[in-house]
Amino acid sequence: MATDVMIEANSLGKRFGSVKALDKISFEVRKGEVVGFLGPNGAGKSTTMRILTCFIAPSSGSAKVHGIDVFEDPLAVREKIGYLPQRAPLYTDMTVWEYLEFTSRIRGIDSGSFTNRLKKVVEVCGLAQVLGKDIGTLSHGYRQRVGLGQALIHDPPILILDEPTADLDPNEKAELLKYIKRIGKDRTILLSTHNLSEVEEACARAIIVSKGRVVADGVLDDIRARQGRLRYTVTIDEQNAIKGSAPKVEEVAAAFSALKDAKSVRELPTDEKAHKFEVVSPESVDLRGELFRVAFDKGWMLLELRRDAQSLDAVFRDLTKGDEAKDRGRKVDDAVDEEFGYDDDEDDEDLDDEEEDDSEESASDESDDDEAEESDDDEDEDDEESDDDDDEEDNK
Ligand SMILES: Nc1ncnc2c1ncn2[C@@H]1O[C@H](COP(=O)(O)OP(=O)(O)OP(=O)(O)O)[C@@H](O)[C@H]1O
Ligand SMILES: [Mg+2]
User: Whose CA is nearest to atom 26 of ligand 1?
Assistant: First the structure.
């Protein structure tokens, strides 16, 4: 292993009962990289992150963080990692100062070093104004910043952030991203998100996962280019023409479709009195000249001709479409049987054959047990999360 590999996931697999959350995920993150970990709901982002941070064990495969195997020495791994789970583990009745002091004590930081670390964290996460406030009174954006502060308090070289910007308004999002970028200058960061513009802004590289598998991994431009398509928007006036009569929509569609390199032609909605089309070509050709020539030869009034590189959004959709976020790998009958307690039916034979520990309880119940056995800390984390929830409820 090269020494600058900070995170290494090796064929990680994870099953929760009949749900295959991870299906041989492998990737590396090198020192100093800020990597976006992208994928639709249920793709396996949080599961991967929980394995890397030693909260749950994988069903197969291995992982190393800072060169240390996550099973062999989980404590050493945790020392190297700052982790912000998808729902920040905050104690809402503590002030920000109390909470950061508490987390620093858990991390074994002495009081002298704490003061220094606190100054850095407060500056880098923009917490100066709220240091004395109860966490329960803070906005969601500030809570996320406190969560980030907690992840940074022991000055770890590696940060694992699970959707830190989810549910933030655009201003808060931009603010938090600013802090993350600042932090990323001298640290390695794995950041999960659904938001592609965020990845474009904060990360140089992205790993896209879908159905528990890596479907793309590379620099953003390369991922975009890998799809190998270009998209053109062409708008033709539907009322006026330079010569002859103004065209009907079918005529325009037919003329564009007749172009050799037009892979697809699709009418787009528009409020204008115009025919607006999307034409897609392979990346190797430039269709703009041909599109102009069609309009010119026919005497149509060309109102707009634009070429866009395939957007990252479109690439993401292409790569992850068909991702059944929930109940992956389960048949509808199985799901219904489990839900209504018909588990002992012979119908479940297939399932039982496949998973020995997979018979009596619902998928989520048994997975919870599964996790509790694997790690006490995990339970703690969940407790913290529910504490947080309770408090949130109380505050409403
Ligand atoms: N404790 C659990 N018990 C049962 N199933 C689980 C558990 N944790 C995750 N799963 C399942 O594993 C799959 C992957 O979930 P995971 O939370 O890793 O996805 P994700 O990519 O983080 O999604 P999101 O974007 O919604 O956070 C999902 O199908 C999910 O329902
Ligand atoms: Mg998640």
Answer: 41
Q: Name which of 316, 315, 320 is nearest 42 in CA terms.
A: 320
Q: Say if ligand 1 is within 6 A of residue 39 CB.
A: yes
Cα separation, 191 vs 180, whole angstroms = 9
Exposed/middle/buried for 293, CB within 10 Å: 0-12, 13-18, 19+? exposed
Looking at the CA of 193, name the nearest ligand.
1
Beta carbon of 50 within 6 Å of any ligand 1 atom: no
pLDDT band with cut points at 50, 70 and 90 for residue 55: very high
CA–centroid distance, 47 to ligand 1, in Å, is 6
User: Three-state SS for 293?
Assistant: helix
pLDDT in tens, 311-360: 677 778 778 776 544 444 555 555 555 555 554 444 433 333 333 333 33
149 Cβ below 6 A of ligand 1: no
Return the ligand 1 atom nearest residue 328 CA: 29
Longest dimension (CA), the chain: 84
User: How many alpha carbons fall within 13 Å on the CB side of residue 154?
Assistant: 21
37 lines ligand 1 (CB under 6 A): no
Residue 47 CB–ligand 1 contact under 6 Å: yes
Residue 326 and residue 324: Cα distance in Å, rounded?
Answer: 6
Where b means 16+ CB within 10 Å and e means fewer, 21-47 reads: bbbebebbbebebbbbbbbbebbbbbb
CB of 44 within 6 A of ligand 1: the answer is: yes
The number of residues making up the chain comes to 396
What is the tens place of the pLDDT at every residue in 61-83?
Answer: 999 999 999 989 999 999 999 99
Q: Which residue of 12, 14, 16, 50 sits with most ligand 1 atoms within 8 Å of its CB, as the best mutation to test the pocket?
A: 16
Which residues have C-beta within 8 Å of that of residue 221, sequence separation ≥ 6? none
337, two tokens:
């049987």
Q: How far apart are CA 268 and CA 253, in angstroms?
A: 11
Ligand nearest to the CA of 47: 1
d(CA 15, CA 29): 24
pLDDT on residue 316: 80
Strand order in the sheet with 213-219: 81-84, 158-162, 188-193, 34-38, 205-210, 213-219
